[in-house]
Amino acid sequence: MKIDRIETFLVAPRWLFCRVQTDDGLVGWGEPVVEGRAEVVRAAVDTLAELLIGEDPLRIEHHWQVLTKGGFYRGGPVLSSAVAGLDQALWDIAGQAYGAPVHALLGGPVRDRVRIYAWIGGDDPSEIGEQAAAQVAAGMTAVKMNASGRLSPIPTSAEVDAVVSRVAAAREALGEHRDIAVDFHGRAGSAAVRRILPEIAPLRPFFAEEPVLPDQAHRLHDIVTCSPVPIATGERLYGRAEFLAPLQAGVAVVQPDLSHAGGISEVRRIAALAETHGAVLAPHCPLGPISLAASLQVALATPNFLIQEQSIGIHYNQGSELLDYLVDPAPFAFVDGHINRLDAPGLGITVDEAAVRRADATGHAWRNPVWRHDDGSFAEW
Ligand SMILES: [Mg+2]
């Protein structure tokens, strides 16, 4: 069996899919994308495809090594995301070739279902409360919310109060037996986070995410020691080496993205590295169905897995939805805040190829917003 064709598809709302075909008719799907840079990753996939055409798709680890290290300049979001999508597609092909779901090839399931969380939005505490209550009604056992919108470098008293009252509104709606994760999105900076975290700690957040940007990882140890709230990070880290310093600083939760951090192959290794530091895995996934399926396969086979992000039905998926690209959405059905084990071969989903080709004919040009402070200077999004 040889790989004979690799294609990419730019599909709404902001995704890129890849399709890897073999000469005996197997097709694997992957999702190689950096949100806002999809066209750039597409070019990277086209270049890396030269290394795969004519090769045996079942040599996944060998291909991962060559794709990742076969250029003198390595790593970073674009190249690591291109490798990630191709890696997902190769695992999808392997599963079909062996007649087994990917988690079986990773050693077999260590759990029967995967706990998921839903996003809640809104700026006003009453909006937060309403959305949290809606997720409770839908059976969710955990939600995630942004700590704040745009934030001053040293937050004002009013800004601190706003964060506390929003988290408090979520806690009130969720009760004491469900979890709230709070995402700082790297907007705050270390001083701001050290002021805010002790204030929200009595509300017992599940974890505080991206308290600082990845380039301030050297401040993570200070943040870990300032508050009892567990610290999470990793959606903007692209390989196991980049997770070592945050883990040594004491982060409790690592959040590699299956479409950014080298795919299934590398996220498994990141999970193992986290395990040696007593940390747990909660993969980042605001992306499409292929990335979510890859995340679930890893979750099913990884002992130190905590919870899975997903964006089904979320407000920011405008123009198209995650389930629009599946022949059958049933594998992603929510049951009591969980997704049941995916047992079909490969990634466990059937991509609607006709829908993907139609969407690619339109494409998209999604870009993340650029925010400004009141004085016109740049603000982190
Ligand atoms: Mg985040």
TrEMBL record:
Domain Mandelate racemase/muconate lactonizing enzyme C-terminal, chain residue ranges per copy: 125-230
InterPro entries in alphabetical order: DgoD-like, Enolase-like_C_sf, Enolase-like_N, Enolase_C-like, Mandel_Rmase/mucon_lact_enz_CS, Mandelate_racemase_C, Mandelate_racemase_N_dom
SUPFAM superfamilies in the record: Enolase C-terminal domain-like (SSF51604), Enolase N-terminal domain-like (SSF54826)
Known EC number: 4.2.1.6
Keywords: Lyase
Origin superkingdom: Bacteria
Keyword Lyase: yes
Top-level class of the enzyme under EC nomenclature: lyase
GO molecular function, one term: galactonate dehydratase activity
Protein name: Galactonate dehydratase
